[in-house]
Amino acid sequence: MSKHYDLGRTGEQIATDFLLKKDYEILERNWRFQKAEVDIIARKEGVLAIVEVKTRSTNEFGNPQDFVKQKKIKLLTKAVNEYVIQNDLDIEVRFDIIAITQSKEKFDIEHLEDAFYHF
After folding, report:
1. Tell me: the pLDDT tens digits for 28-73?
2. How confident is the model at residue 118 (pLDDT cuts 50, 70, 90)?
3. Count of beta carbons in the 10 Å neighbourhood of residue 100
4. Residue 58, burial from CB neighbour count under 10 angstroms (0-12, 13-18, 19+)
5. Residue 113 above 50 pLDDT?
6. Which fold, 3-112?
7. Do residues 91 and 79 make contact, with C-beta atoms less than 8 angstroms apart?
8. Do residues 10 and 56 touch, judged by C-beta distance below 8 A?
9. 13: Cα within 13 Å, side-chain hemisphere
10. Mind listing the pLDDT tens digit for each residue in 78-98?
11. Where are the domains of the chain?
């Protein structure tokens, strides 16, 4: 496997562990619908948190969250709409980004709640 893939998987595990420590219930990881993959679907206090995880080995080319583009947001929105319908949910939905940057032997984590918009 590529180093990029390994870093991404490591970041997703770090994000999952981070959310669990913050009392989120992890409902799904890497949930797919058509061309979209939702990294983490979690629930906390009546809110469905859709979490896009971005992990980078450096901030040299920008912050991790800067790499979530409009096309990805559109795909996530469509996928999550389907998830809510499939699971017959009546719940507030929030889109978050967990930005992770590797610095030497540790990872810096930033949780950006409501990073896109409500729907």
Report:
1. 999 999 989 999 999 999 999 999 998 877 666 656 576 677 788 8
2. very low
3. 23
4. exposed
5. yes
6. Trna Endonuclease; Chain: A, domain 1 (3.40.1350)
7. no
8. no
9. 6
10. 999 999 999 999 999 999 999
11. 3-112
d(CA 37, CA 24): 20
Amino acid identity for residue 2 in this structure: S
Both structure tokens of 66 = 């800067």
List 96's β-bridge partners, or say none.
51
Residue type, 43: R
Max Cα–Cα distance, the chain, nearest Å: 44
| pTM score | 0.86
Pairing verdict, β 106-112 and 36-44: unpaired
3-state secondary structure 63-100: CHHHHCCHHHHHHHHHHHHHHHHHCCCCCEEEEEEEEE
DSSP state of 23: T
Q: From edge to edge, which strands make up the β-sheet containing 47-56? A: 25-33, 36-44, 47-56, 92-103, 106-112
pLDDT of residue 42: 97
- Is 88 in contact with 42 (CB distance < 8 Å)? no
